[in-house]
Amino acid sequence: DLCIYDIASERQQPIFQARNVRDHVLDLPMPIYVVGASIVSSHVSCVATAYHEIRFYDRRANDRPVQEFTVAREIDRRPTCLVQWNCNKFLIGEASGDVHLYDTRRGFTSRAKLRGGVGSVRQMTKHPTGHQLLGVTGLDRKARIFHVPTGKMLMSLYLKQRATSVLLDRNLPMADDISSFSGITNTKQPAKTAAIGDEIWDDMDPVVDDFEEKVTVLSSNGAKKEPAVAKRLRE
User: What is the sign of the dihedral through the CA atoms of 166, 170, 176 and 179?
Assistant: First the structure.
C-alpha cells in the first residue's frame, strides 16, 4: 500500500505507511493493487487502485483513508495511472486508452474525457512551465499531446514500440512553428476559427418577399367582389 519516505532523513523507515481498508462484509480482506499516487499537500495524498477506488490519506488523522470514492460507473476498464492536474482536479488513465478528468469539488465527479487512445495508458505528464498541455503514452505505440481545457488532441506520434513513460520539453510551445499548435498552447482558451466562406454569407443582403394575402369579398347579393388592394396591384 502507500508508503511515504523522507529523503532528508537518515532513517530508512517510512514516515507514513497506509493500512488497508476494513474487511469486506463477508470478513474477507480487500485486495491491494495501487496503480497511481499523487501528493496533494504536505499532509494529504491521493491513491488510485485497479479496483476503481480513489482514496485520500491524511497523515495527521490516521493510517486509513479519510475519503474514498468509486469511479466504476465512468471507467469501464481498470485504471492504470493518476495525475493531479490542479488543486481540485485529477486525471485518471484507463486500460482502454481514454483519460478522464475528475473534480473533487462535486464529490469526485467526471468532468471530461480525453479520447483518442486505443491501448492501455502507462504514463501521463504535465507541461513543466504550467501550460495546459498533457502528454500521454501507452501500449498502443503512440504518444499524444492534449490541450486539457478544450479536450483537443494536438499531436499524435507513432513510436514503433510500446512506451512506458513520456516527458515534455520546457520550450515545447515556443519552439514550434505550426500556428495551429502554438496558438492553442500559449493561450488559455483558443480563438474560434472561421470556416471557409463565412465572409460571403455575412456580406449577403437578406431576401424579403413582398406578397399580399388573397382576400375574397362577397357582396350583399352573394356575387364575388374584387377587393381594392387587388385593383391597386393590378394598376
Answer: positive
Question: Which strand (E) or helix (H) includes residue 232?
Answer: helix 228-234
User: What does the CA dihedral 46, 47, 48, 50 come to, rounded to 10 degrees?
Assistant: -170
| pLDDT tens per residue across all 235 residues of the chain | 888 888 888 878 888 888 888 888 788 888 888 998 988 888 889 999 998 888 999 888 888 888 888 888 888 888 999 998 888 889 999 998 889 999 888 778 888 888 888 888 999 998 888 788 899 999 989 899 998 888 888 888 898 888 888 888 877 655 444 444 444 444 443 444 444 445 555 566 655 544 444 445 455 555 555 555 444 444 5
Measured distance CA(117)–CA(95) in Å, rounded: 10
Could you tell me which residues are beta bridge partners of residue 101? 91, 112
C-alpha torsion 83→44→30→49, nearest 10: 0
Q: How far apart are CA 1 and CA 16, in angstroms?
A: 11
Nearest to 173 by CA among 116, 125, 130: 130
Q: ∠125-126-130 over CA atoms, to 5°?
A: 165
Q: How far apart are CA 201 and CA 3, in angstroms?
A: 63
- Which residues, 6+ apart, have CB-to-CB distance to 204 below 8 Å? none
CA distance 119 to 115: 11
C-alpha dihedral (136, 140, 143, 144), degrees to nearest 10: -60
**CA–CA dist 19, 76 (Å, integer):** 27
